[in-house]
Amino acid sequence: MCRNIKTLFNFEPPATRDEIHDAALQFVRKLSGSTRPSKRNEAAFDHAVETIAAAARALLESLETSQPPRDRAVEAAKARARSAQRFATGAGS
Question: Most Cβ neighbours (<10 Å): which of 38, 57, 58, 92?
């Protein structure tokens, strides 16, 4: 899966329209193999992003969970710690 697409469900505050749009854009870029479509394909590209964003919003609004919402700051700190550990260089290397 695309590494840049983040989990958006069950956070407090909920995912914003911009976050959902960015995830949809990243998904369409991955599917199309293009970060920027040609002028000829721009309308189809933009339509796909908007359609996927709408579907994602509908999905997020309909999902239910018994788990308490996750805190964005805590999850971001965990991600930074994982990244630091993953990319840490050994002393003296």
Answer: 57
- Looking at the chain, the whole-number percentage of residues with pLDDT higher than 70 is 90
Handedness of CA 74, 77, 81, 87 (dihedral sign): positive
Number of residues assigned to the chain: 93
pTM of the model: 0.78
Q: Which residue has the higher pLDDT, 73 or 2?
A: 73
User: Looking at the DSSP assignment, which residues form a beta bridge with residue 70?
Assistant: 11
Q: 57: which 2 tokens?
A: 């919003």
Instruction: Please report, for residues 6, 14, 25, the alpha-carbon distance to residue 49 in angstroms, rounded to integers and kept in the order given.
Output: 16, 20, 5
Q: What is the largest CA-CA distance in the chain?
A: 53
